[in-house]
């Protein structure tokens, strides 16, 4: 009986080890909070916040970070089209893959409330619409350990950019809006930029956007500047859209895991 018990335990441990990879994360932890200003030129358009909850949550018997991203319009933009958006993910603390994704979208009269639950053991996901009573859940096959809209960004933060060369393309499998797709980001190099918190050394990335009606059709319609330090937090985002150039700037960073790469205040 002892040998059988040991065999069962070893089999269970081996299965779990194969199922979930181990990703070294020195970039973020519980309690991190980032605040942003969204503007078009000198006009304030909105505010954004990214929060890693103070507590560790258990999803699918795995310890997870609970991460929320909030966005809202302000000023005259709030008058013309009121936005109150919340995207969130429960992110495995060891393998940096999502176990549950949710979004609550309020944009003008448009509403969307959706939850995605990932089953990494069976490479599948179930999409639920809590606001649609009686609507059946939808099941989808997924690639192994896909990212969601939020988790993919946090995974990007864990990468070692000293081993990524300028121009290199980073490709992740992702599942969002009932679709499996390749989340592609190109590393453009390094740059020192001015921010509200001072001059900061940054890593420059550009997501490869599919053709759409929102962004200008350019290779670098969106650029993201991450701090070139252990944290790799976004300090600036610039998007060239048909309505004009929209910028998102970091205004405050709290409870970072490591000191921010401020060169000069």
Shape estimate: globular
Count every helix, treating DSSP H or I runs of 4 or more residues as helices: 3
User: Strand content of the residues, in percent?
Assistant: over 45%
Mean pLDDT: 88
Question: Helical content, roughly?
Answer: 10-25%
Number of strands: 15
Unreliable stretches, pLDDT < 50, 5 or more residues?
3-18, 212-218
What structural class do the secondary elements suggest? mainly beta
Give structural notes.
- With 265 residues, this protein is mainly beta.
- The protein has one domain.
- It is 12% helix and 52% strand.
- The protein is built from three helices and 15 strands.
- The longest helix is centred in the first third of the chain and has 18 residues.
- The N terminus is likely disordered.
Give descriptors for this structure:
265 residues, mainly beta, 15-stranded antiparallel β-sheet, disordered N terminus
SSE topology:
Blueprint: H1 2-19, E1 33-40, E2 43-59, E3 62-73, H2 75-80, E4 84-92, E5 98-107, E6 110-119, E7 124-128, E8 138-141, H3 151-157, E9 169-176, E10 179-195, E11 198-207, E12 222-227, E13 234-241, E14 244-254, E15 262-264
Antiparallel strand pairs: 1-2, 1-14, 2-3, 3-4, 4-5, 5-6, 6-7, 7-8, 9-10, 10-11, 11-12, 11-15, 12-13, 13-14
């Amino acid at each position: 009986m002892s040998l059988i018990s040991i065999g069962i335990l070893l089999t269970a441990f081996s299965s779990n080890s194969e199922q979930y990879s181990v990703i070294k994360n020195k970039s973020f932890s519980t309690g991190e909070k980032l605040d942003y200003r969204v503007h078009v030129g000198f006009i304030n358009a909105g505010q954004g916040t990214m929060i890693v909850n103070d507590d560790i949550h258990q999803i699918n018997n795995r310890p997870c970070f609970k991460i929320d991203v909030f966005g809202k319009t302000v000023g005259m933009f709030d008058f013309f089209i009121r936005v109150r958006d919340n995207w969130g993910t429960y992110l495995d603390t060891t393998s940096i893959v999502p176990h549950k994704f949710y979004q609550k979208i309020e944009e003008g009269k448009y509403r969307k409330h959706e939850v995605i639950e990932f089953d990494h053991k069976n490479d599948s996901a179930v999409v639920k619409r809590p606001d649609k009573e009686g609507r059946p859940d939808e099941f989808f096959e997924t690639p192994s350990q896909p990212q969601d809209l939020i988790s993919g960004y946090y995974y990007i933060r864990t990468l070692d950019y000293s081993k990524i060369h300028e121009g290199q393309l980073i490709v992740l499998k992702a599942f969002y809006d009932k679709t499996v797709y390749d989340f592609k980001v190109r590393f453009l190099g390094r740059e020192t930029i001015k921010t509200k918190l001072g001059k900061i050394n940054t890593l420059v990335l550009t997501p490869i956007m599919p053709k759409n009606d929102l962004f200008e059709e350019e290779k670098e319609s969106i650029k993201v500047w991450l701090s070139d330090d252990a944290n790799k937090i976004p300090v600036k985002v610039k998007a060239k859209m048909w309505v004009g150039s929209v910028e998102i700037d970091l205004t405050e960073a709290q409870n970072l895991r490591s000191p921010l790469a401020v060169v000069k205040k």
